[in-house]
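Quick one - inputs below.
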Amino acid sequence: MSDTANATRIQTTAQPAAQNVAILDGPLIDCDIHNELPNLDTLHPYLPAHWVDYVTHSAFAAPDVNDYPRGSPLSARADFIPVGEDEIGTRPGSSLRHIQEQVLDPWRVETGILNCTYWVQSVHDEYLAAALATALNTWQVEHWLEGDPRLRASIVVPSQNPMAAAAEIDRWGAHPGFVQVLLPVRAQALYGNRRYDPIFEAAARHELVIGIHAGGASGLPPSPVGWPATYIEEVAGIAQIFQSQVINLIAEGVFDRFPTLRVTLIESGFTWLPSLMWRIDKEWKGLRSDTPWVKRLPSAYMLDHLRITTQPLDAPTDPRQFAQIIQQLDSEELLLFATDYPHARFATPDAAFPVDLPHTLAHKIRYANAQAWYRL
Amino acid sequence: MLETPSVATVQPPAHPAEQPIAAAASRQRTAIIDCDIHNALPSEKTLHKYLSARWRRHLETVGMRGPYGSAYPRLYPNAARHDAWPPSGLPPGADLDFLRAQLLDGWQIDYGILNCLFGVGGQLNLEFGAALAQAMNDWQVAEWVEPEPRLRASLLVPYEDGELAAAEIDRMGSHPAFAQVLLIARTAQPLGARKYWKLYEAAARHNLPIGIHFGGGGGGPITGSGWPSFYIEDHGGMPQAFQAQIISLVYAGVFDHFPTLKFVLIEGGFAWLPPLMWRMDALWQTLGAEVPHLTQPPSSYIRKHFWLTTQPIEEPPQRAYFDQLLDHLNMNDRLMFATDYPHWDFDAPDRAIPPHLDHRLRRAIMADNAAVLYGLDIGDQEIGSAPENGSA
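Output:
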């Protein structure tokens, strides 16, 4: 993977143009499509009898997570909310047919990567969490991967118990449909911590990407200063949790222990990454004796081991400034195109990446980076 | 295996704690206001004469108690530069004569803002915190600002209780020794929470800016995903706390309620601020209905209500990126120079600000912006002289 590892400096200056659709012009890999569980009953065929009993008779309804409040305008674009006679009340993203008709076909998606964000990590009963993960992954194979050859999926794992998570990865690691292990950005401990090594070992064993996705509910506050009062604050603050995870993965030496590890940050925003590189490189210059196993500039690890999806853009309104931020990433390899279907991150296709890019860079973001990263 | 990219061949400079502190000799004279100097207590005993018998006894028998279990030991004792330990044997920042000679005279600093980091606000016993705050503020007036007219102090307050904090602001807020009220970045709750509003009301009443300085610990994990392991994460992770505070203050409507309030973000850096403004503006477009009290995009509140100190100065790998950063930030009149004396990551007045900046912008950052905010007289300042953003 030396070609992707080589951080190619962007030499050209991207210029805004009237028709900002270059990013969409050609084959596409969508790195963030959400397949939602329609309801808990869907899992009954895949759960052991004890757990079917439990979820039927107990008060358990779902993991205690509320990343996307049902009525929130961010949770689903109006045109993605099911309106068919037999679909009223079903969750956006829960229908294969809708994903085909609303993303794969109109966007001419060659490959779409599913991120099922049913966060079993928020189920404190780790046995139930593990059973739900296995059921979800079996359901993903039968109803999604076998339903459309354009789809790839992410393995749901009970990462609060890394040994159980590793077992789940081993269960599915040989299946060609799974390209990634999915972790919520919020956890009870940062992912560089040694306790998670079994997950990274299993991912490395099966050459799977680790996807860290926005959201989750660990029970701990989602900010360094406690619980925010509003949903908008919580969503805005998710970017900082990603920043903490990146700092921690590097400081703990995860990429030194697992030199082939690939980590995708999903739904994190990316415009903050240059500032984080500058800050942590500077910290490393002053404090590197604190973590002597970190042998290189932190930004070098980021360029080698991280990729980031393009939604949400969190971009300046001035296209010139947007182009500058992309240039400041110091790599053409980092960005992976994503729609974040069915969330309402942009209103129209040409707003998905509203800056005209040099043809080769556009092709990389739209297609080639993801193809190389996920080995599609 | 992964290849090592070319960037990894960059050799780090000599360790900051090893670099000489006094190099002012050939510097051309421009006014300097240092917005982050740390004065320290010689010892807790210093406070005895400023405390009542009741709280002196408490200090001696119980002592200070915060939320334990959140320590990340600094790599250097007192976080200090090696050469900032006074010959008198006092701790760094505790010897006024030495600080005067090494910093104020050594660098010809016109004014210095003291940010004393004594942990008054983090006390679990709030009444004790209030008593310590009173003692510390009386000590700062008597032993720092009165003997050294170039110095202004920051008012320490028991910030986890709005009413006690407001009482201390009302007691001392109009004293000319104090330039601002001091909070710390990691509080127990996000600063938009109602419990802090009495403090804001009092600060607004006395027209005092509120400084938020690097550090602190409210008792919870210092990231949104649990506790990290190393000091480099504690230190390097501070911008995440600053960002959380801005998010909270703006969306909670603090500036709609207190339209004259001013915040100074001290030692937090500023390269992360443009992306935060973009994210907050975008979310306001989508989710603004949840916070209908906001009348402007979040970035408008930020550019109106926040000031930023420069240390630790941002060091992108290319000069052009620094210029782009200033353009994206669009807050040339809000950047204020700081050294962070006597700490290890000291920024020297002659080297911290990139040399290619326009001289008027340099002036604005080195002194004019702070002179305007804190009402300090530096003689020939050109008010509003900061050049247009992007012309750096």
